[in-house]
């Protein structure tokens, strides 16, 4: 899919692995700890502008102002915690201001435009952005990512696949000669490329790809073909109308023998007139949910010949005579996958945080119904049911944000080891990232829709920003590994680890706990259900039990006569459940651990602890059966947990707006009238509506064409 | 909101209540049992065309053909069960064929068009449809509803609010003189109206409306005003550009005293040139999630004067001197609400059934991954995880379909009693319909998205039909009563009933079970978790316990010193949970009861029983904590339930396609390439994409405008 936003972030880090010899033009920096050096070329950057300062010049809705005045902490402190320090936050705000205040990027609301107009608008803006990035001399990957995202607003930045997949694949998989030939052209946008892997009939299962690249030793060329309709490349972003090159994944055939999927550099459109080259069929796949401005494309080949040198040969090679040279390891690609999935975790947290920001602010502006006779309509956020919709997702957004950072941090710790070819840590990281990608993208999906529904009627309007954010985020459940498939990958690792532990091996890393299954405590034991240690124990016990039970079920199915694949399939619902519990345990534990950071300002640790407690308790009561089934928790514990949730929500209520402000999304990125920082919702809703296409004239042209003759004929008949 | 589809169905029934003296031009017929009389004017109707016969002339995808050949029953038998008999099904198919095969209604896929073009296309089609309905002499309400829905396809039929709200309000709330004045004009589309109630700042809480109608006894006029921006009418369908009249809900003021919201007949656009009348501000509210072709509108007034006779005065009256005459009862409106909500239950079932049909068929066509090394890629539906995504929602669609029928049937049973003013049964019906509306629309929302995600990448394409079906269905969670508010209404009735039962009153109807709370059985007791009686008992026990616990919690909050509103708010999460459990119990019990129908063909009762078992067991395991918390079920019971689900899914697998075929949705209503009856997905996906707007030229015009200069400048720089 057109997952350019997701992979955009990934590109920041991919580059390190791709260019170990320091040749990568994109400089790497960890998001986590490294302080940003002041740029020497920032004279064009605007002054540091925090949300508060920006709003200072405007009239803020009084309800929202009161919320901010009564919060228990300074949101900037949490912003610094979330982004890694005040210097990083300052730089982020500078770059965002630069993008969002640039009059050159202003255009009509994309929601008012047809898909075709949206494509054209974003293309124009993308070209402008590419030029400005050069002019501003933004070379730091993190800087570019922030700037590009801000220009993109609710949508993916243009040339997303070029930046995030095409270039990195060249860096990572091309030989030096190939780099010399193409990199300069690609980096300078003389050629624009995408990454064409998924086919109409083949997604998850790479080995099922049908596109063929058959080596012809006579001419030393590969002949590319699309043998069936299901072999059409389908979905790559920016493929339909924009790219003139692509990296194509195709089945390699030499002397009639198949060698599996390999990457090839293929020109698809003329550099003179942009027409598809002979034998190339290329186009847009049509409108879809989200990604309105992106030309996701299809691509087919009929006997298209490319030189032997166009196979990307850093790892596998084909000699002129057709001799195939195997790659040193097939598992290196795992590192990239881990990174991309860690980024999806981050992005799921961010996307959920955006939706929660919008719904929380609006719930303080919106007044509705009558709680007490004769009194004014209360703010919607004062209804406990509304808190119960939003606060657990507020907590989840924080939890996922911190999980994404940890995943990234773990990856960075091991990345030099991985890039040297020591991949011992990869299976663990791979399994962990798969489950967390699935968990966080699923929950973000559900939570964003819950936030939209919590905004009542106006949540359906594109003015709320929520439908667009949702439609652009939901593909995270499918791309880069369909979520159920992801959970089953995690489960496979859990089963393997569990069996190793049965055989006496000591497990390490995220599965270490499987070595020591806790006994079920006596039912009479009383627990403090607010204690984070006790909550982590409960999640650990649940995960360990569900892993154990899935393993037993798998064994039962085998003993009942099923072969391994059938037994696995028959157990798969339990396996997904176990992998989910494992992933949830990791998230809860990670959140609790991050709170022990000694650098944490004491004024914010109390409120963050409440969020962590709420996250754990809400996960516990919504899955209470898992904890009750073997008697680990009692009914009394669960009832206690429910009461604690109510108490926590009441305590979080006055800090809710400050907690979403701390995510530090400028209005230009939220793109939501309901979620405006200044809370001036209603007048802007009206202005927005008045500017929409049907209102260009008081009487729509269709009246003259259709309605008038109809009405007049009806009148004449009476 | 533009909920015309929902209310369209309701209009069928509303008419009975509106026109007790047989003056209603729309004839009523129950959907449930009454056989259809053959029409005398059917020569223009096409011959009965079942799905099977239609597909007979086409090549059906071999996988799908095999599915159908191996099912255990004839899907037509279930179709007859679902729709109420073979005659009704025959008539339905005739009308659908008539609409779907009419070349006059053909147009470009709405997904290819801008909102403005969609509006224009549907307006044109709506005018045509209105003429054809006259020409075909379709006067039966059920016939019209079927025909109009088929013409609408995935979207609401045009003039939805006119037919479903404007006309019925005139029938129901106008005096005879008012009817004489306006009905003929409205029925013949000389005036086109909508129903303007919701305001920008006011939805759920009717008394909060701000629009004023101030009586001026001097001129015997009402002066209409929009005193604030939040008083703008907002959302009414067909208001923005189409309607020239509306029924306006406004606060009545006489001699400075407020009498609450009342309905007024207000002209808003000129009948000569369609321009807004002086003092009227009207327009479209802009693009939104779903309802692309509908001109949901805003409306404001500045000193607009209407004659006293324009207040709809069947119930309340204002005399010329300003004397206010109260209505006989304010509860009569409850009847209409029950009916509309019963229809939302029906429609939730239907919408979910559409999504399940699409995903199930596609899951048999789609082959993916490798289950066993060397073997062909299996049909996706053979993965147990895929079954676990779809089959519970297949079962829920059946359950909700039958619930909707029962609600309607109960309403019909009591409707003559209600229309005579005996409203004793209304509180019970009202509470039941509120909870069921919320439950079914929530589950349909979740289920439709689950179905979309179960279709992998192609689920995101508008070619799948799923994004559009979802966006058009999801407002059901908000309109006609926001779901959480609905659940709390049900909870209020449950609390009242529970307290009555504590005081020794014997309860009747859907809450009778609250009188007799079952004891928790001994833990050692073993259960057959497939027994429908035992499953109903479990759901009943859970509902009764949660009602009891919510009542205890409410009492505790009061005893802790909170006043009633604060105590209610503090308990509201538990109250929603209790109302949900009550509603789920009703659905499960109703499904089980419908299976005892002696007319049920034995060949289909086995498969329907499996669906009912699956529905109950899935509800049980996903809420297992509720059953375990007080020890009603044991961990062993829940584990047994999970195993039964696996077994039931394996048994349902060969019947899955037949079970969705039985819903009898023609392709023209599914509007889904993935869900085509013939399963020829891939070639049509390609054809559809090729026809999409960006592919009108091989090289898009934006290349010349933006991309070419960019590429050439970059090349020149190298």
- Total discrete domains of chain A: 4
The oligomerization state is homodimer
Number of separate strands of chain A: 11
| Structural class by helix and strand composition of chain A | alpha+beta
Low-confidence stretches of chain A: 1-49
The CATH topology of the largest domain in chain A corresponds to: Butyryl-CoA Dehydrogenase, subunit A, domain 3
Largest sheet of chain A: 6 strands, mixed
Taking all Cα atoms into account, the compactness measure Rg of chain A is 27 Å
Pfam family, one (chains A, B): Acyl-CoA_ox_N
Family (chains A, B): Belongs to the acyl-CoA oxidase family.
Domain Acyl-CoA oxidase C-alpha1 (chains A, B): 334-495
Domain Acyl-coenzyme A oxidase N-terminal (chains A, B): 74-192
Q: Mind sketching the topology for me?
A:
Two copies of one chain form a homodimer.
Chain A: H1 4-18, H2 51-56, H3 62-69, H4 75-83, H5 86-100, H6 115-135, H7 141-152, H8 160-173, H9 176-187, E1 193-196, E2 212-216, E3 221-225, E4 233-234, E5 245-254, E6 257-267, E7 280-284, E8 297-301, E9 304-307, E10 317-318, E11 324-325, H10 333-365, H11 384-419, H12 426-453, H13 466-473, H14 483-502, H15 532-559, H16 564-594, H17 602-622, H18 624-628, H19 635-652, H20 656-661, H21 667-670, H22 681-690, H23 701-717
Parallel strand pairs in A: 1-5, 2-5
Antiparallel strand pairs in A: 2-3, 3-9, 4-8, 5-6, 7-8, 10-11
Helix pairs in contact in A: 1-7, 1-8, 1-10, 4-5, 5-7, 6-7, 8-9, 10-11, 10-12, 10-13, 11-12, 11-16, 11-17, 11-19, 12-13, 12-14, 12-16, 14-15, 14-16, 15-16, 15-17, 16-17, 17-19
């Amino acid at each position: 899919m057109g997952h350019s936003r997701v992979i955009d972030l990934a590109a920041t880090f991919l580059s390190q692995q791709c260019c170990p010899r320091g040749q990568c033009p994109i400089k790497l920096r960890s998001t986590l700890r490294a302080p940003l050096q002041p740029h020497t070329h920032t004279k064009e950057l605007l002054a540091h502008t925090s949300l508060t300062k920006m709003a200072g010049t405007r009239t803020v809705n009084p309800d929202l102002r009161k919320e901010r005045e009564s919060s228990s902490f300074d949101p900037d402190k949490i912003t610094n915690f979330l982004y890694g320090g005040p210097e990083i936050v300052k730089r982020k705000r500078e770059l965002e201001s630069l993008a969002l205040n640039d009059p050159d990027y202003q255009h009509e609301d994309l929601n008012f435009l047809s898909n075709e107009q949206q494509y054209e608008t974003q293309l124009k803006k993308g070209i402008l952005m590419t030029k400005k990035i050069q002019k501003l001399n933004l070379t730091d990957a993190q800087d570019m990512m922030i700037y590009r995202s801000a220009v993109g607003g609710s949508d993916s930045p243009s040339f997303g696949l070029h930046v995030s997949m095409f270039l990195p694949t060249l860096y990572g998989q091309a030989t030096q000669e190939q780099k010399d030939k193409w990199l300069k052209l690609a980096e300078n946008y003389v050629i624009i490329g995408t990454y064409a892997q998924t086919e109409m009939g083949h997604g998850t299962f790479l080995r099922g790809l049908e596109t063929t690249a058959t080596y012809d030793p006579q001419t030393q060329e590969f002949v590319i073909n699309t043998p069936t309709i299901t072999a059409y490349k389908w979905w790559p972003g920016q493929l339909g109308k924009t790219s003139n090159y692509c990296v194509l994944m195709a089945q390699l055939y030499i002397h009639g023998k198949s060698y599996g999927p390999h990457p090839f550099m293929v020109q698809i459109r003329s550099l003179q007139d942009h027409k598809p080259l002979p034998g190339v069929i290329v186009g847009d796949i049509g409108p879809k949910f989200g990604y309105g401005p992106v030309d996701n494309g299809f691509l087919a080949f009929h006997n298209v010949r490319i030189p032997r040198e166009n196979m990307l040969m850093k790892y596998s090679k084909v000699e002129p005579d057709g001799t195939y040279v195997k790659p040193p390891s097939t598992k290196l690609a795992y590192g990239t996958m881990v990174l991309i999935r860690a980024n999806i975790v981050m992005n799921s947290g961010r996307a959920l945080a955006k939706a929660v920001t919008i719904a929380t602010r609006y719930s303080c502006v919106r007044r509705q119904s009558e709680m007490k006779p004769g009194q004014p309509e209360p703010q919607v956020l004062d209804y406990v049911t509304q808190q119960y919709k939003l606060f657990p997702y507020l907590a989840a957004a924080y939890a996922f944000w911190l999980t994404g950072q940890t995943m990234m941090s773990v990856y960075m710790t091991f990345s030099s080891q991985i890039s040297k070819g020591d991949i011992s840590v990869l299976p663990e990281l791979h399994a962990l990232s798969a489950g967390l990608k699935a968990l966080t993208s699923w929950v973000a999906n559900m939570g964003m829709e819950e936030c939209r529904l919590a905004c009542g009627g106006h949540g359906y309007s594109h003015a709320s920003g929520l439908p667009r954010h949702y439609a652009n985020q939901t593909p995270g459940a499918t791309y880069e590994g369909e979520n159920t498939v992801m959970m089953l990958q995690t489960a496979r690792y859990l089963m393997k680890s569990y069996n190793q532990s049965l055989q006496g091996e000591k497990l390490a890393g995220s599965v270490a706990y499987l070595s020591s299954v806790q006994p079920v405590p006596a039912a009479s034991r009383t627990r403090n259900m607010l204690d984070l240690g006790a909550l982590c124990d409960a999640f650990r016990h649940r995960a360990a039990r569900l892993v154990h039970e899935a393993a037993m079920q798998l064994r039962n199915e085998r003993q009942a006569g099923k072969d391994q694949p059938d037994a696995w399939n028959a157990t798969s619902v339990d396996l997904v459940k176990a992998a989910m519990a494992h992933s949830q345990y990791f998230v809860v534990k990670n959140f609790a651990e991050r709170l022990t950071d000694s650098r944490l300002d004491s004024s914010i640790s109390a409120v963050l602890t409440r969020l962590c407690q709420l996250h754990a308790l809400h996960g516990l009561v919504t899955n209470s059966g898992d904890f009750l089934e073997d008697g680990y928790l009692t009914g009394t514990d669960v009832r206690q947990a429910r009461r604690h949730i109510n108490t926590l929500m009441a305590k979080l209520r006055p800090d809710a707006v400050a907690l979403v402000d701390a995510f530090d999304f400028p209005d230009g990125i939220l793109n939501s009238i309901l979620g405006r920082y200044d809370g001036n919702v209603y007048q802007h809703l009206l202005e927005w509506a008045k500017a929409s296409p049907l209102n260009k004239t008081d009487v729509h042209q269709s009246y003259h064409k259709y309605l008038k003759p109809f009405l007049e004929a009806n009148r004449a008949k009476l």
